[in-house]
Structures are given as C-alpha cells and as structure tokens.
Amino acid sequence: MLKATGQFADGQPIQKIPLAKETYDGVQHAFFKQRLQALNKPQKTLNMEKHLTKFGAERVSQEASASRAEAHDKFKKADASSELRRVQINKLQRNAGFMEEWHQKGVDNWKKNMTIKKDREANQLEFDYK
Fold first, then answer.
1. Chain centroid to CA 107: how far?
2. With contact defined as beta carbons under 8 Å apart, do 42 and 35 qualify?
3. C-alpha span between 93 and 15 (Å, rounded)
4. Where are the domains of the chain?
5. What mean pLDDT is reported for the chain?
6. What does the alpha-carbon distance between residue 89 and residue 86 come to, in Å, rounded to a whole number?
7. 3: confidence class by pLDDT, cuts 50, 70, 90
8. Where does the chain have alpha helices with state H?
9. Where does residue 92 rank: exposed (0-12), middle (13-18), buried (19+ CB within 10 A)?
C-alpha cells in the first residue's frame, strides 16, 4: 500500500531517482578526453609531419631556385631587348647620316651639273653668235 510519505509499505520509493553524479562524471570525463585528444596530435600525424619535413625543405629549395632562374631570365630578356633597341637606334643613326650625306652629295652634284650646263649653254650661245 501507499503511505503519505511517497513510499510503498515495504519502504521502497514510488519512483526511483537516478544518480546524476555518475552520469555527469562520465560525460565530463569523455568531454575532457575529447578536448585532450584535440590538443594532442596523433602519433600517426606526427610521424607523417616528420617524414614530410624533408620534402618541405626540398620544395623551398626548388622554389628559391625557380625564382632565381626566373629573375635571371627576366634580366636576360631585358638585356636582349635593350641590346636590340641599341642596335636599332644605331641603325637609324647610320641611316640618317647616310641619307644626309646622300642628300648633300645629290645637291653638290646638282650644283656641279648646273654649272656645267650653264657653261655649255654659254659656249653654245657664243658658238651661235660666231
């Protein structure tokens, strides 16, 4: 039968109250282990990182070598383009000098031909008068 105290006649409670402390301790322990494992890397990961360090060093070495080669290529390309520009400027200067000299030579020849023509025409007029 039921007593007013909330117990059966034999002294057992009507509803059993679970012990929350044991469950709380278990959950807290699991949570602590999970956080601890998140902080500590697994040995497999540590071994892999140790193994990959030499490859990382090689990658850095190759990147440095590639950047040096690229800088060298840029320098050679800039040097070649400046050399080509210098050659073209030199060629233009020589052409300009040649054209100026050729023009001057043409003017001199024209003047010479005009004096010869004038002398010839004067001689022809003199011949015609005689």
1. 58
2. no
3. 112
4. 43-129
5. 88
6. 5
7. low
8. 20-39, 43-129
9. exposed
Distance CA 96, CA 93 (A): 5
> Do the Cβ atoms of 1 and 9 come closer than 8 Å?
yes
Q: Answer for the pair 24, 16: CB distance below 8 angstroms, yes or no.
A: no
| Cross-strand pairs, 13 | 7
Contact 22, 28 (CB under 8 A): no
Q: Amino acid identity of 50?
A: K
pTM, two decimals, is: 0.42
Phi-psi region of 17 (alpha: psi -120 to 50; beta: other; left: phi over 0): beta
pLDDT above 60 for 111: yes
